Amino acid sequence: MTPIAPLITSFLREHMPIEQGCSPHTCETYAHAFRLLFIFASKRLGIKPSQICIEQIDAALILDFLSHIEEQRGNCAATRNGRLAAVKAFIRYVEFRVPSALAQAQQIHAIPSKRHDQGLVRHLTMDEVRAILNAPNTTTRLGIRDRAMLHLCFAGGLRVSELVGLLLESVRLERTPSVRVVGKGRRERCLPLWKETTADLRAWMAVRGAPPVPELFMNAEGTAMTRAGFEYILDKHVCSARKSCPSLK
């Protein structure tokens, strides 16, 4: 029997970030998937997560786990497929290190992703965007930060992970204002900034200060903004903007 602990540790700490060059967000997402899997497997097998062996993570257990996260946790098919993708990536890594698990790996790779409908994402109108941008109280430091974040997100079409991971050194406000974004797959792109966006970013830079973090935006404690933190801020301002723009849902 082969303990899974050293394999998952090297997979998450070395293989993904160093060998594969995965982003911190991707590594965090995969780590969460395995956290859920090991909690499930621990209860199913009646042992501690640290005692789980790779031979015990077979196709039958993975299928039960996928059913569990859909039926018990209420996850959608897309989330289920994401968890399966994380498991398959780890199993590919295991294949080269535990040859005795090749037949087991083949069975796991054969587990299909679930087909699901993908609804059309509704776009915001200019009035709705303007209502959200006007929601933050720009007489306060955090209000200035929120408006700059929202404006940059809307104007640049940034993913949340791209926005919260944006470095201060990636912003250029002289001459032709622009921002360099590192996106999915570590692909870089340089985006020119609108005059209004530039003005909001300049306002934020003037009050940002010099906290010991390289990211452009940080939370109230002075540490890097997180996805959850931005989602909370966005929800708060959407609720406020809804008073003047009822079409926001």
Termini Cα gap: 53 Å
Shape: elongated
Q: How does the helix and strand content classify structurally?
A: mainly alpha
Total number of helices: 10
The major beta sheet can be summarized as: 3 strands, antiparallel
Q: Tally of extended strands?
A: 3
Helix content: 40-55%
Description:
This protein folds into two domains: 5-109; 126-241, hpI Integrase, Chain A. It is 54% helix and 5% strand. It is built from ten helices and three strands; from the N terminus they run H-H-H-H-H-H-H-H-E-E-E-H-H. The chain has helices at residues 5-19, 24-45, 59-71, 77-95, 102-109, 126-133, 141-156, 160-164, 195-208, 227-241, and strands at 171-172, 178-182, 188-192. The protein has a three-stranded antiparallel beta sheet with strand order 1-2-3, with no helix packed on it. The longest helix has 22 residues, at 24-45. The model has no long low-confidence stretch (mean pLDDT 90).
List keywords for this structure.
single chain, mainly alpha, three-stranded antiparallel β-sheet
